[in-house]
Amino acid sequence: MKLVFSRSSMEALYRRFNRKEFIHPDPLEFVHRYDEAGDREVVGLIAACLAYGRVRQILKSVACVLERMHPSPSRYLVESSRTHLDRTFQDFRHRFTGGAQLSALLQGIREMLMEFGSLEACFLEGRRPDDSTVFPALESFAHRLRCTRPDVLNSMLLPNPVKGSACKRLHLFLRWMVREDEVDLGVWRRVKPSMLFVPLDTHMFRIARAFGLTARRQADLRAAEEITAAFRRLSPEDPVKYDFALTRLGIRDGVDIRNVL
After folding, report:
1. pLDDT digits (tens, 9 = 90+) for 69-95
2. What does the alpha-carbon distance between residue 132 and residue 232 come to, in Å, rounded to a whole number?
């Protein structure tokens, strides 16, 4: 399958790869294991925030966290104190993220649940009526997460949208929550897919440059904006539609981007 950047080629790629059977190995698989919306959004945020480094280690780290929060991660957080979270996860380590940082993230999620009832409701609190993208609401959402323990929660685990980062993992979380098809879960009903940004990591950045979607030299916010704008021209109501299928190229065994670009 020779790919060019056109609606027909992207749709062909979508039909080929946007299926549940291609989710593994992807931290999204953990979200699919839960039925309740509250658990799915909590698991999704944890899994997305830890989605850096080698995929095998990512899956191992996410599984380690969720095993301690079984069977309902959202209920576990609501019922847990700061002391309990600090103690439970004190030995956790995922690359540059230690137990203190993870506990701070979990406490931020807990505070959101206690105040708003759901992560979606907290996210919507930061949305303005005239917003055309998720960026302002995401900025507010990340700030609320961080302000519970700003001295502990570092940018490696929770990037700051206002500092020019592409915030790939936060946009990945939003894709999982907002879009709905065989892969993405559509947990959140009050955010439009048209407002999403492409979750831009080095792999997607390389693909986008091969297509000529950006001339940027870094996978930063401006590059994410340019790439999203290009996808929006193909799919105005759902510009992130092709993200999952494209990122299977070079990630899954036997699927090599060099064979299709």
Report:
1. 999 999 999 999 999 999 999 999 999
2. 13
Q: Is the dihedral of CA 145, 148, 151, 153 positive or negative?
A: negative
Distance CA 125, CA 144 (A): 11
DSSP codes of every residue in 141-202 = HHHHHHHTSTTT--TTTS--GGGTB--HHHHHHHHHHH-BSSSSB---SSS-GGG------H
The half-sphere exposure of 239 on its side-chain side, counting CA atoms within 13 A, is 24
Helix, strand, coil percentages, rounded to 5, for the chain: 55, 5, 40
> In the predicted model, is pLDDT for residue 1 greater than 60?
no
User: Which residue, 72, 78, 79, 77, is CA-closest to 39?
Assistant: 72
**Are residues 117 and 150 in contact, defined by beta-carbon separation less than 8 angstroms?**
no
Tell me the pLDDT tens digit for each residue of 195-244.
999 999 999 999 999 999 999 999 999 999 999 999 999 999 999 999 99
The answer to whether the peptide bond before residue 161 is cis (omega within 30 degrees of 0) is no
Q: Which residue has the higher pLDDT, 29 or 150?
A: 29
Residue type, 200: L
Asked if 195 and 174 touch (Cβ cutoff 8 Å), the reply is no
Rounded to whole angstroms, how far apart are CA atoms 20 and 111? Answer: 33
Bridge partners (DSSP) listed for residue 93: 98
- Written as one letter, the residue type at 205 is F
Contact present, 213 and 243 (Cβ < 8 Å): no
* Secondary structure class of 5 (helix, strand, coil): coil
Contact by Cβ (8 Å): 204, 198: yes
Instruction: Quote the longest CA-to-CA distance of the chain.
Output: 55
